[in-house]
Amino acid sequence: MSTVFRSGFISFSIFAFNTTSLSLDTAGCARALEASAMLGSAVVAFATAGWGVVVAVFSAS
N or C: which end of the chain has fewer CB within 10 A? Predict the structure, then answer.
């Protein structure tokens, strides 16, 4: 799971960097950074919750 998460995060980082690079105006850049930060937080929260479920399942068994 961590390998999948890591490769997904790397490709997302590249995508976010490219999106930010394409928006040359500061307002567009700020919006792109805000969107990528929100999406990044959601990805981290989802991965943390998923890892918690995995640990709980292994602890229960």
Answer: C
Joined together, the tokens standing for residue 12 give 């997302």
Q: Hey, what are 59's tokens?
A: 């602890």
pLDDT in tens, 33-60: 788 888 888 888 888 888 888 888 888 8
- For 1-61, give the DSSP string: -HHHHHHHHHHHHHHHHHHHHH--SHHHHHHHHHHHHHHHHHHHHHHHHHHHHHHHHHHH-
Domain carrying residue 40 = 2-60
| pTM for this predicted structure | 0.40
